[in-house]
Specification:
alpha/beta; 2,3-Dihydroxybiphenyl 1,2-Dioxygenase, domain 1; 4-stranded mixed sheet
Length: about 140
């Protein structure tokens, strides 16, 4: 069976805030919708759900994320994910200039969890805490 990754879905507290963060990093909004109804209840497994969503795509056209904000039922706030937590972990992006990406992230109040590391002289990388507590890895190739 041939399998293809379609997108990564991320529930957010504030859709517009998350869109602003990811578009400033270089992603493009591909589409927006408000979704509800029996098909959504069946697919998601949550009765009465209604979400606003946005599909964003990376400049190379290969990576897509779906950001969604629950209108019904109320979203459940949890502690921000930690790097060693089981489950959805992070979304990672290659960037041409890590310093520039970190300046953009900082304008959104998003900063490295600890600092910037260099991996075997090949990558500079860091994890930042993005909107709604999302962990976002940013990496710049050094070679």
């Amino acid at each position: 069976m041939a399998i293809k990754l379609e997108n990564v879905g991320i529930a957010v507290r504030d859709l517009e805030e998350a869109i602003a963060f990811f578009t400033d990093l270089g992603l493009t909004v591909q589409g927006r919708a408000t979704v509800s109804g029996e098909w959504a209840e069946t697919a998601v497994g949550l009765d009465g759900n209604t979400v606003k969503l946005a599909m964003l795509i990376t400049p190379d056209g290969h990576g897509t994320i779906e950001l969604f904000e629950y209108l019904r039922p109320d979203a459940i706030e949890t502690e921000p994910t930690r790097p060693n937590e089981i489950g959805m972990h992070r979304v990672a992006f290659s960037v041409p200039n890590l310093d520039e990406a970190l300046e953009i992230a900082a304008r959104h109040g998003c900063h490295p969890l600890r600092g910037v590391a260099t991996y075997e002289g090949q990558f500079k990388l860091t994890y930042v805490r993005g909107p709604s507590g999302i962990i976002v890895m940013l990496a710049e190739a050094l070679t």
